[in-house]
Amino acid sequence: MLEITDLNVYHGSSRTLKDFSLALNAGEVLCLLGRNGAGKTTALKSIMGLLPAQSGSIRLEGRELTSLRPYEVPKQGIGYVPQGRRLFSELTVQENLDIGLMTRKTGRDVLENALKLFPRLRERLGQVSGTLSGGEQQMLATARALCIDPSVILLDEPTEGLMPSMIATIRDVVLQLRDQGKAILLVEQRVDAVLSVADRVCFVENGKAHPALPVAALRDDPSLLERYVGVS
Amino acid sequence: MDLGPFLVLATLEGLLQAAVLTLIALGLSLVFGVMRIVNVAHGEFYMLGAVIAWFVASLLSLHPAVGFFLALVISPLLVGLVAYASERLILKRLKYDPEATIVATIGMLYVIQQVVLIGFGPDARPVEAPFYYRIRLPWFGYSAYNLFVMAAAVVLLIGCWYILTRTRLGLIMRATQFDSETAQAFGIPVDKVYGYVFAAGAMLAAVAAVLIVPIRQAHYLMGLDPLLLSFIVVIIGGLGSLRGTVVAALIIGLSDGIISVFFSPTLAKMLSTLLVALVLVFKPEGLFGAKAR
């Protein structure tokens, strides 16, 4: 569904993604794992066109994305939940969701589906989003991305700074979305969260993606985590 | 005349000043709020609006009212076009870098000013008001056109508020203002929004100029004072805040009107500058501005 081939991205003169390649299928959760600064967030931003690719290809169902302007990428059906949520904090919950709905001119039924996953947001529609709790903000960031009715969802550290109950909610939603056939590319630091939700994992090291492994490989060989993430 | 009538006259003059200033400052504030650039050429778009209004009103030789209302349409459109072209050709190429765009807009200020000097000349030129009617107050007569300018400014401000807070266009502009990168990740063409916002800011200044030119006359240096006052207003009100712009323009306009009548215009400017200094020291984000994120 989403195929990245030999992608090279630079920050100034520094090469942050080096011949980065991976393939993401419909109905699966692929998790990018790696140390801080390895290039995981850069990979997601590059897919969204927010960081221009120097060379290489990003294809969504055969359509090349690297030639598109950044604002055209989400219109192809890619939802992005950025690190730190990046809500429009002075807009209300409803207005944040409206921005998502405007992206591909999706209907109210898409909004209803998102609100079914996060019923708490329905009670907060008129509230300024910057005043929500951390967990509610993460729900809103995810719901906003779902409002574009994406076939691919990029989630950048969705459990960062959340309480365990909220982490469980986010995990359940990710699994539901996977079961609906969405392709999910997840950047996650919490190994327990990765083990409970991912189908495959891809280690990212110095801007390079290693071949993806089934998540069972992590359980079978814990030394992989020590080697690539620095935890045992 | 007693003190009371003087005060009424000074307040009316202050309100007129505030009405025009609000429109000009709102344009400046909008551009900074959404694009994060300081447009030093903003006063020249105001001047250009007045000069184009003079050309439209005088060259077409129509009834003053027809000429004025034609100018009210044509002048903002042409100024918007000039602003849009300068944004595409200059600011976009500088990638909206804050320092570079300040230097570039200073350059734009001089280019526009000198081009107008060459084409329009150094003289101040009047534009006829669309109507003459004096309202008889118990102490003096007051121009109904001045009241029309105030009313028009209020209508335009309500229109701006409605667009910004109640429409899809306003939502796009506010989203771009708060986080342009995330806005792009949700399909908002930030680059195009910047072009339109820069043009809209200049058009607001041009509308203000067309409204005031029957009272103040068109002149190639007329953009400098409003630029200074607009900066004072947006710093006090808070850059990017519509409410702050209106409140600060009322404070500055009224104090300028009243102090100028009772004391001197210089003292009015000194007090405005002192107020800016106090705001910068004690509330740098302005009275209604959001704290830096």
TrEMBL record, chain A:
This is ABC transporter ATP-binding protein. Signal peptide: none annotated. Keywords: Amino-acid transport, ATP-binding, Nucleotide-binding, Transport. One of its GO terms (biological process) is L-amino acid transport. One of its GO terms (molecular function) is ATP binding. Residues 2-231 form the ABC transporter domain. It comes from the Bacteria. Belongs to the ABC transporter superfamily. InterPro entries: AAA+_ATPase, ABC_transporter-like_ATP-bd, BCAA_Transport_ATP-bd_LivF, P-loop_NTPase.
UniProtKB/TrEMBL annotation, chain B:
One of its GO terms (molecular function) is transmembrane transporter activity. The chain crosses the membrane at residues 15-38, 45-62, 68-90, 102-122, 142-164, 193-215, 227-254, 261-282. PANTHER family: AMINO ACID ABC TRANSPORTER PERMEASE PROTEIN, BRANCHED-CHAIN AMINO ACID TRANSPORT SYSTEM PERMEASE PROTEIN LIVH. Its main location: membrane. It is a multi-pass membrane protein. Belongs to the binding-protein-dependent transport system permease family. LivHM subfamily. The keyword Transmembrane helix applies. Keywords: Amino-acid transport, Cell membrane, Membrane, Transmembrane, Transmembrane helix, Transport. One of its GO terms (biological process) is amino acid transport. It comes from the Bacteria. GO terms for cellular component: plasma membrane. It comes from Metarhizobium album. This is Branched-chain amino acid ABC transporter permease. It is found in: Cell membrane.
